[in-house]
Amino acid sequence: MNGISNIFIKKKILIYGFGKSGISSFNFLKKKNQVYIFDDNNKIPSDKYYKKSKISFNQINKINFDLVILSPGINSKNCKLKKFLKKNSKNIYTDLDIFYSFYKNRCITITGTNGKSTTCQLLYQVLKEQKYDVRLAGNIGFPILSIKKVKKKTIFVIEASSYQLEYSKLFKSKYGAIINISSDHLERHGTLNNYISAKFKLIKNQKKGSITFVNKHDNYIQTKIKNEKFNSKIINVNTILNKKFVEKFKNDYFRSASNIENLSFVVKFAKIFDVDEKNLVKAIKKFKGLNYRQQIIFKKKNISIINDSKSTSYASSIEMLKKKDNIYWLIGGIPKKGDKFSLSNDYCENIKGYIFGNNQKKFLFDLKKKIKVRSFRNLKSALDNLFKDLKKENNSKKIILFSPAAASFDSFQNFEDRGIYFNNLIKNYINAK
Prior knowledge:
The protein has helices at about 20-30, 50-55, 80-85, 95-100, 115-130, 160-165, 185-190, 190-205, 220-225, 245, 255-270, 275-285, 315-320, 345-350, 360-365, 380-390, 415-430; strands at about 10-15, 35-40, 65-70, 90-95, 105-110, 135-140, 155-160, 175-180, 210-215, 235, 295-300, 305, 325-330, 350-355, 370-375, 400. With about 425 residues, it is α/β, with parallel strands linked by helices. The longest helix is centred in the C-terminal third of the chain and has 18 residues, at about 415-430. The mean pLDDT is about 95.
């Protein structure tokens, strides 16, 4: 542990937001600090330690807090404590800051709009194949402060969202990557420039001697690099890999351009960490991808069904739409602010769109001039009609693509919940045949 100039000891600390990261922050800090808890939705577990530390809205201004640990899911400009946060902005930190204050392990931090989780998971498996003591943490679902039995040699692969980076003040990572940037989370960040700046805090906070890989072909990233100076070494990654190189892994998962992009960054990190080529090939061959991310859930003869529930924007769906097969695209949910459909007309002839849910107007407006679309009340109704259409058509290869290009919160708890629901619909249909 790195206790030098540690500001997270013997303090009065408010943890605001009590999801996974809030709980792990409380458990980590409670022995050496006086820790209080506040959550907008009052979702505090019944554990006696949590109950004792929970405070009400009226108590907030009566306590002189030294620090505030803000959960990434809290929008500081639109929450119950927005006035309090504005007043105490200099004292706001994150679980990443706490981690950095206590540990000095080697870290690889990966951010970007699309592909963060897949890249982190693949890199984790490659380093594990090389027998490194490696841990996967961050936005991928494992809060950084929940990781146990950390040793000096432990390497962290961290997925960082724009929300986490935006609030962090102390966190630095020796190794980093910005995979790509497209318009996203504007409802939170306000403007695309704000969103890009949040991502670039990863590089801006780095020291000399640090290394960050960036996408050579991403215009937003390249423009930012040309216009600003950074302390760390920035290396451009060619995300268009040689076909023969990709084929040696014998893994169908790496046929889409987006997954090849993820792979290109992993290969770069593998070289830095001296991963033996045999171990690299072995790990990538075994990689099956993550659930609900371009996941093939059914394949038979000329029909493939892909569950890409993680897709929450057009940009995250487009690579899957570039396949030359006949695509039956299921799309719907809460559209992202400022999102634009930029697929060229060359690919649109083979796509039929099935729009579902209550937010159909934007999708109809964006897509009707490019692809044939129909709209339906809900996902089940859209899928029922899709299968009816399939029976009428004798196309060669067909792909049913569930890639909603929108947030899931209109009808589901999260993209996992949405993905499970789609899988069950497909399972019921197949069993009924």
